[in-house]
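Intended use. Records like the one below are meant for learning the mapping from a protein sequence to its folded structure. Do not use them to infer anything beyond what is encoded.
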Amino acid sequence: MRGRQVCYNHGGKSLRGIASPTFRHGRFSKVLPTRLIARYQEGLDDPTLLELTDEIALLDSHISDEVGALDAIEADKKPAQWRELRKMLLERCTLVESQRKRLIEMQQLLTTKQALLFLGAITEVIRRHVSDRGTLGAITAEFERLAMGQPGIADGSVLRDTEADA
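Structure written out for the chain above:
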């Protein structure tokens, strides 16, 4: 078949993209329209993709405009306008709550750089207050085990071993 790597009888007449009955969302589709590829990549590369500040501001301005127009609306159309305003306010609440959760979650995650800086600060505090070379060597070995993903404090095995010795 023209433009395809298969013949008509062996997959060439199969439906592709949104025409296929097995199409779900198109995320992994080989037939993503070329006009969408650049936008799709921009979305992937956008660090502010999950921010909702612009949407909240736009909705706020729309709500303000609708409230200002209430006086000019005929009495029989006001109930419908109030229903529309309530829908917009609920939508705003949803956006604000999503943004709030996103901001909280951002504060609960450490970047690799932050984790390394924190580990460096802890190491410096330990060096400053522990003078025994044997203890410093044991602490260093434990840090190395943690960095290599080997069993240690992080999974509780060191704590169990210590409790068994006591």
